[in-house]
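Here is a typical protein record:
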Amino acid sequence: MAIGERIHFFRNLRGMTQKYLGSAVGFPEKTADVRMAQYESGTRTPKADLTAALAQTLDVSPQALDIPDIDSNVGLMHTLFALEDLRGLKIGEIDGELCIRLDKAKGRTYEEMFKMLDAWRQQAAKLEAGEITKEEYDQWRYRYPEFDTTQRRARVLSQGLSDMLIEDFKKQSKP
């Protein structure tokens, strides 16, 4: 997730406007909202000192805003926290073991994540059962979703086109 999306997420979580947050980190009131909109949209990327000021104002760690570095333990934790916020990942315990699960309350996000993670689980089970090689497993993972056969993707009509076709059908159906 990009830093702008994280700024937007935490700003909304704290109930702040772009103007308020921009002013709080030192931008002139006249341009504070425009500057924050630029950072949130990704048009601009804040430098380290601004990221630190934003983090302090939002009452979060700078790592919670920054693009996660999964090569460090702290970076990995902030990646997992972001996945909790955006994708409904939850930490729990089953039979004395830590586990990560999906939150069904996330609706469509849950369904999409479930499909993807289930596809991964199926490939991992095939590897463990000796049905595929480690190379085939890695090819599936590193080229995902290209080699994923568990999900069928279909193009869906836009809502506007769908509405137009329904209206046309209704007109043709009238006596």
The CA atoms of residues 167 and 173 lie 10 Å apart. DSSP finds nine helices and two strands in the chain.
